[in-house]
Amino acid sequence: MELPNLLQLSRLLRPGARRPLEEDSPALPHECALAHALGLPEGESLDAAPTPWAAWDALQWLGAGTRELAWAWISPCHWQVGSSHIAMGDPRALGLDDAESRALLDILAPFFKDDGIELHYRSPDRWLASGEVFRPLRAASLDRVIGRSIDTWMPQGPSANQLRRLQTETQMLLYTHAFSEARQGRGAQAINSFWISGCGALPKGWQAPQELPQVVDDLRQPALTGDWGAWAATWKRLDAGPVAEWLRAARQGTGLELTLCGELALQSWHGPRNGWLSKLAGQWQGSNTFRQALASL
Questions:
Q1: Cβ(75)–Cβ(194) below 8 Å
Q2: Rounded to whole angstroms, how far apart are CA atoms 61 and 74?
Q3: What is the CA radius of gyration of the chain?
Q4: 281 in Cβ contact with 273 (< 8 Å)
Q5: N or C of the chain: less Cβ packing under 10 Å?
Q6: Which residue from 82, 81, 56 is spatially nearest to 69, judged by alpha carbons?
Q7: pLDDT in tens, 53-66
Q8: Distances, alpha carbon 242 to alpha carbons 127, 128, 249, 285, 289, in Å
Q9: Taking Cα atoms as reference points, which of 221, 63, 45 lies closest to residue 146?
């Protein structure tokens, strides 16, 4: 692909170290990058402290009274049972609207409450849940599991068996429920389970940074679904939009940090560079001769 603005911007900035993640990391690079920017645990490995995404979300959504509680995200989902494994689709593809999602929450809330879990509506494809069972729980992020076998990524910890039982009860409840029959009647995919992610509580004394990072996640959906035509088209649109804006800011001397994330690694650039090299780069973008000169320096 030709992405001229991204190419020019990368030349104006100083590259940082490339950071790879292990294939069994419960988080993806874009999640680790955002957690780092927010000063939260990054959850980059099975041994590292998980990122309490739901607790952070609850603080923004429900206020300061949530700070000391343990939280998780609950995502209604469809588990496709195969001959050798169970795969999970993207909850956003279920087509849940506000009313249907709230109705489903009302159906499941009493069962969660019996296990000490309080459900809070957040969006059609994601709810907030509070309860001590989430404080020691380690769970893979939703993006890590979408389109994959769930076996490797099931939650781990002292309360894991309790929550697996709750998942089984949910499957049994919804199998013959009128809610499921209504979806089946209009040809919608069944909702037969839920995924738990973003578990834990905020670290003691944690404070949100004064300036939040700008997150551009337009590439997420086509990457997760493997729609590479849409992925390439999105890159070109981003290059002409926000990347062009960042390039103008860098040329004017505004400091910025750019982080690009793939499935197993992330790379950051900082800048703009100082001195004559930066000015020369701004004047000779796209020159093959200049690229060769940089390579020899």
A1: yes
A2: 15
A3: 22
A4: yes
A5: C
A6: 56
A7: 999 999 999 998 99
A8: 30, 31, 11, 18, 28
A9: 221
In this structure, what token pair is assigned to residue 271?
Answer: 């800048």
**170 in Cβ contact with 193 (< 8 Å):** yes
Contacts of 214 (CB under 8 A, 6+ apart): 242
Tell me: cis bond preceding 155? Omega within 30 of 0 counts. Answer: no
Token pair of 32 as six digits? 């680790």
Residues 256, 260, 219, 281: what is their CA dihedral angle, to the nearest 10 degrees? 60
- Rounded Cα distance, 258 and 239, in Å: 13
For 192-214, what is the mean pLDDT? 93
Q: Is the pTM of this model over 0.70?
A: yes
Extract the tokens encoding 180: 């499921």
| Dist. CA 180–CA 193, nearest whole Å | 12
